[in-house]
Amino acid sequence: MKCPFCSHPDTQVVETRESEDGGFVRRRRRCASCDKRFTTYERPDVAFPAIVKKDGRRIEYERVKLLASMKLALRKRPVSTEQIDGAVERIEENLLNLGLREVLSTRIGELVMRELKKLDKVAYVRFASVYRSFEDIDDFKTLVDEVGR
What phi and psi, each to the nearest 5 degrees, are found at residue 39? Predict the structure, then answer.
């Protein structure tokens, strides 16, 4: 595998770990040229359902987009990268288990909200406030009261 820092083609696997659920393999690598270390993840290549947006467009599922939206909601919150990765894995597993060729983006939003609620209530409120696009303060207050229970 090519080094992401210096593009040298020779890297060495230093450590290999399988995730708890066996869904992916984490490898620590070291570059033979610049001696920097980096992590790679191996996971099975599977076909996710197409995402149907609110306006009817169909787009391919992109893990990077899901991860970015969760990280944005979790910005400056005490949640580890491993916890975020675990949440994304559970969302993806749920998508695959649906066995559908297409999934509404709203369904993915609900899955994200469910995972964020487990991880961090502040991140959940952040995401929900944008996702549900509240029209007035009473709707927002209801969400915050619901989380506080």
Answer: -115, 140
